[in-house]
Amino acid sequence: MYKNNIFEGNSSYSSIYKPILANNFENQGESSDLCSMMFTPEHLTRFNGLATPFFYYDLSLLQKTIEAAAKQASRHGFHIHYALKANANREILQPIVAAGFGADCVSGNEVLRALETGFAPEKIVFAGVGKSDKEIKTALEKDIFCFNVESVEELQVIEGLAAQIGKTATVALRVNPLVEAHTHQYITTGTAENKFGIPPRDFDTLLQLLPALSHIRVIGLHTHIGSQICNMDNFKNTCLKFNEIRRWFEQHDLHFTDLNIGGGLGVDYQHPDDNPIPDFQNYFDTINRYLERTPQQQVHFELGRSIVAQCGSLITRVLYTKQGENKRFAIVDAGMTELIRPALYQAYHKIQALKAPQVAALIYDVVGPICESSDFFGKDVALPMLQRGDLLAIRTAGAYGEVMSSNYNLREKAPAIYMPAL
Ligand SMILES: Cc1ncc(COP(=O)(O)O)c(C=O)c1O
Question: Does the C-beta of 305 come closer than 6 Å to ligand 1?
Answer without folding.
Answer: yes
